[in-house]
């Protein structure tokens, strides 16, 4: 807890704590990891709402698919969705993430909902079709598709970016969205919701993340365009995006060498926690967002997205 002499609470003693001070601020210890990274190796630990998220039955009886639901933002979304009453399929990439995925599944089941975890590479169309098939076999329908998994790698110079990495970044971040939306659409009833994770990098690209930032801009365009296509066809499926700012997840220590000061460049002077992003997905998935489609909701700790 920050002291009341902190600039964010100065002169307001006794009136409550600023949101700026609610979570740890950098500097953090240097804790590099191999891609894709795991929760257990993070220091400090991330908050996915395990102890704090309270559901209000806003997704009762819904079925959700969340890619990258083992860790980080996707894990917090899975916990929140389950506590709002949804059954959840999470997808994730790698054997090293088995423990993270098992942990997410545990929290979904503790909320009284059903959970399935499907491992594999979503840059393959066949694997994306498998994910949709497993969800339909198990739950009989899909209400919410959260396209959240992504790959990034920091590179200082253009010459440092291999062509395979450029292609992989687009395949994982962008092509998978097309594969998953296409496979899911026939199983989504009117009232369904697709939510794509973009980034503050779509607005203010970080030069050390050139391919990643380009995929996030493409995701913005895809989101607003697919929204028009599905609504014009009378599908009744809304399509939106969430644009996180810097969020403390395994993606960061596994792809950003200088993560000790991560998130310091926001007005909050700290990264967000996954639990602080999850409510945006709950809102966009819920009937409260009935008239919202083609929109992007920024969750950036005050970073500007105009
Ligand atoms: P994370 O590492 O916890 O989650 C990303 C997940 O993607 C991983 O758990 C991994 O299982 C999955 N994944 C990666 N490659 C895959 C592949 N080929 N096939 C299947 N799954 C694959 O990190 P996160 O930060 O929670 O990332 C979630 C989303 O948030 C991403 O789209 C990311 O771009 C976005 N985002 C993150 C930040 C941030 O600062 N952390 C900021 C803006 C946007
Ligand atoms: Mg992970």
The end-to-end span amounts to 32 Å
Q: What strand order characterises the main sheet?
A: 3-2-1-4-5-6-7
Reported for the largest beta sheet, the result is: 7 strands, parallel
As a whole number of angstroms, the C-alpha radius of gyration is: 19 Å
Number of domains in the coordinates?
1
CATH architecture term: 3-Layer(aba) Sandwich
CATH class designation:
Alpha Beta
Number of separate strands? 7
State the share of residues found in helices, binned by percent: 25-40%
String of helices and strands = EHEHEHEHEHEHHE
Mean pLDDT: 96
Model regions low in confidence, pLDDT < 50 over at least 5 residues:
1-5
Structural class: alpha/beta
- Ions and ligands: nicotinamide-adenine-dinucleotide, magnesium ion
Task: Tell me about this structure.
This protein is of the alpha/beta class and 306 residues long. The protein has a single domain (57-299), classed as NAD(P)-binding Rossmann-like Domain (Rossmann fold, 3-Layer(aba) Sandwich), CATH 3.40.50.720. The protein contains seven helices and seven strands. It has helices spanning 72-83, 98-110, 125-139, 163-184, 210-232, 251-255, 274-285, and strands spanning 63-67, 87-92, 115-119, 142-147, 188-197, 238-244, 296-299. The protein has a seven-stranded parallel β-sheet, with helices on both faces. The chain starts with 62 loop residues before the first strand and ends in a 7-residue tail after the last strand. Residues 1-5 have low confidence and may be disordered. It binds nicotinamide-adenine-dinucleotide and magnesium ion (MG). Residues 36, 70-71, 92, 97, 100, 250 line the site of magnesium ion (MG). The site of magnesium ion has 7 residues, from loops.
